[in-house]
User: Fold these one by one.
Assistant:
Number 1:
Amino acid sequence: MTEAAIVKENKEIARQYKELLRISYRTLTKEDKNLIRLAFDTSVEAHKDQRRKSGEAYIFHPIAVAKIVASEIGLDATSIAAALLHDVVEDTTYSIEEIEKMFGKTVALIVDGLTKISHLQQQQDKDVSLQAENFRKMLLTLNDDVRVIIIKIADRLHNMQTMDAMKPDKQVKIASETLYIYAPLAHRIGLYSIKTELEDLSLKYTEPEVYNDILTKIRESKQEQDAYIDAFTKVIKDSLDQEQLEYTIKGRPKSIYSIWRKIKTQNITFDEVFDKFAVRIIYKGDIANEKFLAWKIYSIVTDHFRPNPIRLRDWISSPKSTGYEALHITVMGPKGRWVEVQIRSERMNEIAEKGYAAHYKYKQGAEQEEKTMEEWLNRLQEALENSEANAVDFVEQFKLNLYAKEIFVFTPQGDLKSLPKGATPLDFAFSIHTAIGLHTRGAKVNNKLVPLSHELKSGDQIEIITSENAKPNVNWLDYASTARARSKIKSSLREEKKELAEEGKAVLARKLKAQKLSFNESMINELVIYFKLKTSLDLFYRVGIGKIDNKNLKEFTASRSNAFVSYFKNKIRKAPVAEDLNKEEITHKYDQIVFGKEEEVLDYKLANCCNPIPGDRVFGFITVSEGIKVHKKDCPNAIQFQSNYAYRIIQAKWIDSTQQDFKAIINLTGIDNLGLVSEITQEISKSMNVNMRSINFDSADGVFTGKITVIVKNNSILDTLIEHLKKISGIDKVSRE
């Protein structure tokens, strides 16, 4: 380096030192300044021949770490001195004994802890067996002074801020380690701003394209976000002013990392993340009345915007172990969008920004200040050592359980709906309107597509996707739990059965004519009795769905010509005739139990303790020596089984075997052409009583192969579908697996 460059660098080092003293969050005494000066001079001397990968003098790194410790975390002179010295023992000729002689036992202990952590990290780099999890545990147990962890977090933050000069593979390693170890530690200690910055910087190196894409989109949407915050603020401003409150309202964008995590976990796009920012209301108030003012502001906000009942976080009555205090509420803002509102006094805001160290500012006298510092460090040590959920989290869970029998959910427009616990999107759809329920095609919960069987939770926002062609099927009764939804579904299924019965009646008339049999009341009665049914409507319905086909009718005709059957038939004529032809009922014959979601037919025995009968609500219990035993849902032993042997319980239900659905797989091959998949799916959609479960097509060199899983009631329906598929242009072969 030239002499001019060295002079310039020395000037910059001196400027940085002065800035460190100026930005220190706490008031520094003369002794404090002397301690920091000695640490600074020692660090400059120790690192004088060292340079960072970027080429700058190494001393800029310890100064930067000390500045983070002083201003962003608000620690004392001891911590600032330790931060300046944190690499001295590891990287230079100074020993820990020399540090103790010069700076005292506390600084030496902190520097020693930081040196040990660096050695551990180097070991971790070389020794793959020392996993990140073990390293994290050692971090927590290695030291007696939590300031070691805090300075290490500050050290990691500055390393992350200046990582551009490193090799890409090293960047990814350090960023991943930061996400796994240091960001959670910062969160635990209450350094929320630092935690957020660590997460964002980590994402910048682990997923650079994703990071830059979200950053660009946040910048592009800033104008829209500002306009939304203005609209939100305008609604409550007059009410706040009327109470003569001094306050500021500002929008705080969500961190890039938290947006990315939401996109990933909920499988949604950037535009579908509605809570991309929080609104923060910071008010003036002395300690005596700040709690009262917080709840007053809460009341004003919820007068104008409907709150999500389970998203209230009262960190004022029960501050976090880190000292964090605030009221968090999530409300349904304009345009049916969720907005998180954070209500804090100026004091609480400082604690949120700086960590619990901000309490110093509000304590009088050096002695009181020192006591507060000690309390805080002890609290943090406990928080780090106790990996279990804290008491406040426990209370939050307990509060939710109090209201377990009822949940509150929201429409896309933000209207509140109350439903029983265990409700599904189908229950929600029918609670809005019967027509919406009957035409439900799918549902989104919190912008993510979910099955109709998905159990809703309080605070969910549900959007129902409807289609004119959608209609209830018998499985819906397994998904719906409210009386309203179930009765509407049953009613719709009955109507559909009547329609199918009407079609079946016409089909039966044609088929009897082909068999040279009369279509009259007497013949219908014979058929009803022959097929062991209850009403003529049952008969027509089963013909309509293909359960009674040509083969069955031919067997009936053959049986009539049998002399024995003729004799038996004379007896039948004296028996009571079948019920009225026009009776509007299709009876369920509960004659079979099926198990599991796939509704498999398995061997079972009925339990003697509760003696279930056809039609009862039941469950299967896998015994050790007697296979599956079927019990009633309200069996006296049910609670014991469900609590002690949940893994041995299998879902079960009685069904009418004539209406059971079966799964079939159809294989197709043919010549690939435009629109072929569309034609195939249209053909399946047109087929009555066929539900498509899954579809998979693969194409190579102009030839395609396909596999379709369908749900049908019987073979004849499947055979008809296969015949129709064979007629599609381009299809070469269709077979059942």
Number 2:
Amino acid sequence: MNYMIGIDLGTTSTKAVLFDDKNQVVAQANYGYPLYRDTTDMAEEDLEEIFVSFTNALVAVVRKAELSKGNTIQAVSFSSAMHSLIAFDKDWQPLTRVITWADTRAVNYTEELKSTGLGMEIYQKTGTPIHPMAPLSKLLWLKNEKPEIFKNAAHYLGIKEYLFHRLFGTNKMDISIASGTGLFNIFDLDWDSQALEVTGIKKEQLPETVSPYEYEKGMSKDLAAVIGMPADVPFVYGAGDGPLSNLGVDAVQPGVAAITIGTSGAIRVVSDKPVIDPKGRTFTYALDKDHWVVGGPVNNGGDVFRWARDNLFDAEKSTAALLGQDAYDLMTEIASKIPAGSDGLLFHPYLGGERAPIWDANARGSFFGLNHSHTRANMLRAVLEGITFNVYMVSLALEEVVGSLKSIQATGGFARSPLWRQMFADIFEQPVTVPQAFESGALAAVVVAQKALGQIDDLYEISKYIGKSNTYQPDPENFQAYRELAPIFIRLSRQLQTEYDNIADFQRKHARSADKK
């Protein structure tokens, strides 16, 4: 049997998925690592912890391949979280941990760049909105806040590039990951000179950019022995997790949107060329040089649901554990008993600042409309609706850029919840289709590997492997409530922005004084 392995490098875990020659899942392994938030706005990972998790996951699925019985692994391919940054010195010793997309310490330098108009010029060439998530902003923060590190940094990589460097000694980045740095000109397919000038770094400090279909072979025999696989297995660079999520749910035709809600979330469509939003609200990232993903990411997805579980329903979480139930299933059952619209309670889910649609790292969450009749169940449903309303806001901006959305393909943790699927169908007033294949990112990475090895000619071959889909139709009984509440939600998100900076400054001041104690 011939196998392939898809690696999904996430924000808090690495997953390895073993696929057979019919692209069916045979085995999977998932190993987590902490996200370090030692100070306000920090969100970092440890390089060694990620490498250990990666190798452990790979070892686990390689064992399932039973290579001793004559089976083979044809390739390993990657879907990777975007926007990470690691600084190395000239001897390739790390000077930082992994600074992730969720790190917002660069907010002040980001706002300064946006205020000059220069930020819009750079966005129009790079397709990456000016926001602390992007390595562009992180480099400005390093230059100003960590000058010694900035001075000694000879190389900058992201997390996937670090793994390839560790495995093969390379210094390369695929154009998909590069297109999310804010430093890469998506029209010239090269590092952008203006962005480099703004950050104060040289092109030589950045990796060589390559096709997602490029691969490396020949890892050290010692490491290959530890993993349990031949040293000459091709490791395909693959692409960013956002673009591959679209491919993985077969949302690659014009007007077909993919919505993903995991820890964070996004809505995206595929275009055959880079598309720039005149208002700077959407991103454009490469899947490859012929396919571009246009969309908007949100910081606040499943992590907000987890916050509600831990802070509003802690007792129920403990009860569910004692009964052997899933706490999230119990919570969605509770929320389902509340009518659409949560009896007039709205929730803005900006617990971790926000990217699209408001692009404000200082944004903060809030309940609006609370009265004596509301219960925790209302609050819980409002949390789910608030996450959904926010993605709906992004879709309105996206339609201005790429045209009407024809259909929605859903993936991520929320796709397992019938209540949440129906909520998306009702608020968007469109059918929501959930493909059977939940491991969409890893599957897409494997299809990229098959194209890289010449086994297929076209990425659209993936449609053969998606499997059966379930479609949720909009419920007209819920339309009226959501049609009335959506405009209020949108207006409030704009009106509250005037005070987000003030409350965020107060919180940072309070957090600093608490640290001193």
